[in-house]
Amino acid sequence: GQARRFYEEERGDWGYKPEFFKLPDDTMLRGCFFSYRYFAHIDDVIRAEFTLKAPLSAPSQAVADEIAAGGETVSLHVRRGDTVTDPEYRSWYDGILTDAYYRNAVDHFRTRLRDPQFFVFSDDIDWVKSHLKLPGRLRFVDHNGPDKGYEDLVLMSRCKHNVTAGFSSFSWWGAYLNDNPSKIVVRTRRMNALDRLNHPDDFFPPEWVIVES
Predict the structure, then answer these.
(1) Range of the domain at 156
(2) Whole-prediction pTM
């Protein structure tokens, strides 16, 4: 049979490529294609595809109810995982996801919103509780393990505002799927050590607010 066409994104080069839309039909894709510019024109379709088919678990629904009943709720995501355990990834993120970044992010909201409450999410929530000392009202969301991470994503998107974790696709989607029209989303200035390839302006929507690390 006829060989399928194949298009692979270069590792580390995650900027927007306009030629993507010129690829022939039935091309097999491999990569992140991690720019909102690829799908901004079908935003409603993307949001529909990210809707859970099953209800939230009881513990997650309880948190969702807290968020809905709260005032100025802010999700705050701390990515650990491979940025700690993998030497290559660790070198990419050195000096970006710092304690200072999260303090500055919290301060950004506390100076602009009335008594914001921060819902904290992480793949290493125990470490965050022990090591990340932040001011303000914090609610650590710690009931979902790796098999229920998608529920954390939903909960992040239900908050009114969001603090993202650099190049974390997880917190990126949590913020992107937030449908609050007046949301404030905070991001790092740099994505990671590969910014010369990554083109942060392709990755982060222009209205997201830069907070220094």
Answers:
(1) 54-211
(2) 0.90
